[in-house]
Amino acid sequence: MTGKSNQHGTVPARLVGVNRRSPTVMLLAVGLLVVSLLGVGVRMADVHSQTRDWRLTVAAAPTRLAYRGGAYLRAGLMTSATEPAGGTLSGGLTEGGGQILIPKIQAAEGSSLTWLIVKDGGREYSYSLMGGG
Q: What is the pTM of this model?
């Protein structure tokens, strides 16, 4: 391996041209970065349009929840004072894996669901129907 000579001695051949980058490689790297950022932005915008959250994935208890044709807005954490009388029934899972609970008082066939509960681990969130019932 022979290198180039300069005033400081001989530079090994493997180091010659280290600071020179091929324009094609740089353009590919920049293009890949732009495409990746664009993909992340599109995904975040999609999740935001569904849930009002700026995230890459849907949360277990999102800010906005679409359920059985209605749109529900998260109102806050449940407390023992806000627990529904008569208990709850399972209503399935959110896209993010949270457990949807329907108050038994609203579970009757034909009854309008005006509020829901979503359980996310040890926390329970209350959701109110947006736009009335």
A: 0.70
